[in-house]
Amino acid sequence: MKKFIYLFTCIAFLACKEQKKEAAAEGSVVETPKQWLVFEGKDAKAKHIVLVSGDEEYRSEEALPQLAKILSKHHGFKCTVLFAQNPDKPGIVDANYVKNIPGLQALEAADMMVLFTRFRALPDEQMQHFENYLKAGKPLIGIRTATHAFNFGEKDSTGFRHYSNGYKGAHQEWVDGFGRLVLGEKWDSHHGHHKHQSTRGVIAEAAASHPISNGIASGSIWGPTDVYGVRLPLPGDSQPIVLGQVINRKGAFDENDLFFGMKPTDDELATENNTGLKVNDVLMPIAWTKSYQIPGGVKGKAFTSTIGAASDMLNEGVRRLLVNGVFWAMELPVPKEANVNLIGTYSPSAYGFREDAYWNEKPLKISDLGTIEN
After folding, report:
1. Could you report the per-residue pLDDT of 129-183, keeping only the tens digit for each?
2. String of b and e for 145-155 (b: at least 16 CB within 10 Å)?
3. I need a surface site. Which of 131, 227, 238, 243 has the fewest CB within 10 A?
4. C-alpha torsion 213→292→222→60, nearest 10
């Protein structure tokens, strides 16, 4: 009898195992890949921040999960992080795919948006979530390439062409696109020599007592990304918070180095960039505040920082600048010295463009970016 029961158990186990194999083969047992990350807040009433990544160059897919972890663990916010993905490969980051960012419906109930995209050409149903958010006058932060967050080609069928970087169409209020109208500037230029001159941030004299400057010593902000050029003066009520000094590299250029041979200890002010332009005679704002109001919408608050790439985030001053900006934009008391300690292991990549083959050969799973403690 015992032998019979044992034999029956083995047969049942093997049959169950085979059924699972068949079900998986038929597609009935397939785990849905994680297409965005959610870091819970301190409680059910926590403010909800949606961080939207999607740029081909400055590794926003690495920077924003770390920023979200800091905001969630240290400051109690609920954070949702979204990523560019090819619809054929859901759950895998594809920064080069400009037509899809799943999860943007989270903006409908969000209290804050952090935007770090570059030249996206999203479908109308996804763009509508941005439109709704901005019409409501909700606060936002734009990081680095957010000044040129969107760009639609001539062949793109869209009702949101006016969001395009450098727009020159019939919607006069939108001349130069989303970047200029909402954040204060579109893509203009590399003021510093790209990959050869770094950025050191000094607090603007008039912003010494501004809440966003809390806990940031002038000159402590540094990043290997170069200063972006902007057209001065910035429009409307824009107020510069941090000005960018262009710093020469003391060491040799190294393509394989995270900072391309530049170092935080570099301190030589550049006299000109690679085009001969005098770069430190008038300092470019690299962080500023501005109110915005899109047609048909109510007024809102925006904060823009053109420093903030994944490798810039290794600098404590850069992290504190962004965290302070979040508090300021949401009209919350800005901490005197916000906790911006890195969460877990943070090993960002150097900035730079990657071929499509890279994203196929080295797939980056969104689920792998979600660990808050290592």
Report:
1. 999 999 999 999 999 999 999 999 999 999 999 999 999 999 999 999 999 999 9
2. bbbbbbbbeee
3. 131
4. 130
pLDDT of 25 > 90? The answer is no
Domain spans of the chain? Answer: 36-188+287-369
pTM over 0.85: yes
- The CATH class for the domain spanning 36-188+287-369 reads alpha beta
Cα–Cα distance list, 201 to 99, 216, 284, 287 (Å): 34, 10, 10, 9
* 293-347 residue pLDDT tens: 999 999 999 999 999 999 999 999 999 999 999 999 999 999 999 999 999 999 9
Query: Residue 172 and residue 373: Cα distance in Å, rounded?
Result: 48
Please return the burial class of 209, using the count of CB atoms within 10 Å of its CB with bins 0-12, 13-18 and 19+.
exposed
Per the CB < 8 A criterion, the answer to whether 338 and 71 are in contact is: no
Task: Give the CB-side neighbour count of residue 199, counting CA atoms within 13 A.
Answer: 36
- Contact of 157 with 185, CB cutoff 8 Å: no
Cα distance between residue 147 and residue 305, in whole Å: 9
